[in-house]
Each structure stands twice: as C-alpha cells, then as structure tokens.
Amino acid sequence: MHDRADMDQLALAIKAWGSELGFQQVGIAGITLDQDAAHLRDWLAKGQHGRMDYMARHGDKRARPEELVPGTVRVVSVRLDYGTADDGAAWDTLAEGERAYVARYALGRDYHKLMRNRLQKLADRIAEETGPFGYRAFVDSAPVLERALARDAGLGWIGKHSCLINRSAGSWFFLGEIYTDLPLPVDAPASAHCGTCTRCIEVCPTGAIVAPYRVDARRCISYLTIELREAIPEELRPLIGNRIFGCDDCQLACPWNKFAQRHDEPDFRARNDLDQASLADLFAWEEDEFLRRTEGSAIRRTGHEGWLRNIAVALGNAPTTPGVLAALASRRDHASALVREHVAWALARHEGRD
C-alpha cells in the first residue's frame, strides 16, 4: 500500500528531477478521458484523419490509458520547449517565395529520441526512490491522447487550433508521457484562455481549422507535406505556398506566443541552414545527400520522393525566375512518377502566368 504522504513527496521530487533533466514543466494527470474519447470518435467518423489509418486502428485505447498499459492509474506529462524567438524571421521566410519554409520543430534534431532518453532517465530516478514500478514512456510512439493528458496535468489548455497552449510558454513545445501504476496525487487541469480570439482559424492557409478545436487533416499542410504519401490534391497546392515540411501559421498568429518565455535548447537549433535555404538548393539534393543531411532529423520521415514532391509544389508557387524554372526542369524526367507529376504541374503553373 502506498502511503499518501509518501506519494505527495514523490510527486514533488518527480517534478524537481524532471526540471533537472531539462523539461520545462512536469505535471500529473488521472486517466479518465471520456469527453476527449467522444471528440476523437466523432473526428474519425467524419473521416477528418485522412489516410492516417493508425488513428483509428487502436479503437478506444488512445483514450483509455489503462487498456494500453494495464495497471496504469496516473500519467506523468512533461513539456520540452523548442521555440526560439524567431517568429519575425519565420514570417519573413513565408513572404519570400523562393525560400523554403520548414516547421520550426523540424529545423534541428528529431525530438523523439532526445525526449525518450530524458523520460527513461526520469523513470530510472523514480525507481531509485521507489524500487521497481510499472511504467511505460511515450513520445508520439503509441496511441496516446497527449494533449488531453497534458491539459489534465495542468500543462496548458487545448487551443482552437488543437495545439496545447501554456500561459507563460505559448505553444512551441513537445509533449511526452510516463504511464505509471504509482497512485500519485493529480494536478489541477489547466483552464482555457482563448476567449473570443479566432486568429488561428483565420490565418490557416488551407482552411483546415474547420471549426474551433476541429482540424480536418485532409486540408492541413502538416498532413499534406508529411503524412500523405500520394499526390497532393491540386486544389490545395497553390495554398501551400513555400511550406515544404509542416506549417506553423496558426502558432505564429497566436497572441499567447507573442510574449512567451523561450528556452534555447541547443539540439533544436537549425541545421543545414534550413531556416534560410532556397527552394532550388534543397531541390538539388540527391537521395544520398538528403539522407546524410537529414540524419537524426524529423524531415527524413517524408523520404526523398516526398521531399521532392513538396518542393516541386513550392517551386510552382514561387516567383517565375530563371533559377526556379531551371530547378524544375532538372527534375522533369525524374524516375518517380509522383515527382514528375508535381514538377509538370509546377511548370504548367509558371507557363500559365506567362
């Protein structure tokens, strides 16, 4: 039997250890997510998950931690900030059509391994105190409703764009979890503070935020450039602009990010000059160079073919210049039918302007 006072002390210690490991916040949640489960079921029923079949594959396990990891009674939720104070630079990149825009989270090292290592160290530290205990750590690696759990752990509220927002940190952060059988005291859930603001909805380039708290993945640029393996729907291509991997517009427009405190995590600093690279330069990467430059990066998830597909669309949206046309022409006869089709669309777009 776990003593209540011991659990109270352990919860405080876990938060201190988490801070020592580099997490900006640690909270503890219960495992009841009935309302979130209903929202998820409705979203899936409407097909708004697109081709992300894995979202539906696990049934209600995503909203029932005790079914995913038997014995779970609490979830330790952690926050790791990645945002740097470059929001102005991000808008500048979006405004320069020949430059590539990469979502801020993907500019540096892939966060999955880094966070998993820190969560494992946190679990090891807990075990030193308690002895062996039941747990599993997750970072986007299983059917987990991480934002709902983080909200219940007091880390922030779910905004109208469906990202988690923290009053002092904004929304530029990653989430991770430790499911545990330790009956720790739970934190108070975060209250919502979006009010009547709808800036995120209004700024979305493709109108993917179809209602407050409802994102239709089939229109979302992050889905289209990362998750989708097929051709990007033609009617959405002009709306993508120069975004070649993900999209940050809803976060860039959120007032809570304007004055957010930022933490500089060296691992998340931009690599390969991705925060200022030109579309033509990135389009020239052959597969071996793509694999070399994206080692340890979330960008590798697109594969070289998806990378070229995305950049072809962005080049089609770029100003008509000799450099842009030459870059597209260089891939006109690419081995991939997917790449060839998107290049042909882009070239036709420039010819149409002429």
Q: Which parts are unreliable, with pLDDT below 50 for 5 consecutive residues or more?
A: none
Q: Overall mean pLDDT score?
A: 94
Question: Order of strands in the sheet with the most strands?
Answer: 1-2-7-4
**Count of helical regions:** 16
Beta fraction: 5-15%
Outline the structure in words.
It is a single chain. With 354 residues, this protein is of the alpha+beta class. Among the domains are: 4-83 and 108-180, no CATH class; 278-354, no CATH class. The protein has 16 helices and ten strands. It has helices at 4-20, 34-45, 54-57, 65-68, 87-95, 111-130, 146-152, 199-203, 221-227, 237-240, 249-253, 279-283, 287-293, 303-317, 322-330, 337-353; strands at 25-29, 74-81, 101-102, 135-138, 157-158, 164-165, 173-180, 209-211, 214-215, 243-245. The chain has a four-stranded antiparallel β-sheet, sandwiched between helices. Strands 3-10 form a two-stranded parallel sheet. A two-stranded antiparallel sheet has the order 5-6. Helix 1 runs antiparallel to helix 6 and helix 14 runs parallel beside helix 16 (337-353). It starts with a helix and ends with a helix. The mean pLDDT is 94.
Set down the secondary structure blueprint.
Blueprint lengths: L3 H17 L4 E5 L4 H12 L8 H4 L7 H4 L5 E8 L5 H9 L5 E2 L8 H20 L4 E4 L7 H7 L4 E2 L5 E2 L7 E8 L18 H5 L5 E3 L2 E2 L5 H7 L9 H4 L2 E3 L3 H5 L25 H5 L3 H7 L9 H15 L4 H9 L6 H17 L1
Helix pairs in contact: 1-6, 14-16
List keywords for this structure.
354 residues, alpha+beta, two-stranded parallel sheet, 16 helices, 10 strands, 42% helix, cobalt, QueG_DUF1730, 4Fe-4S
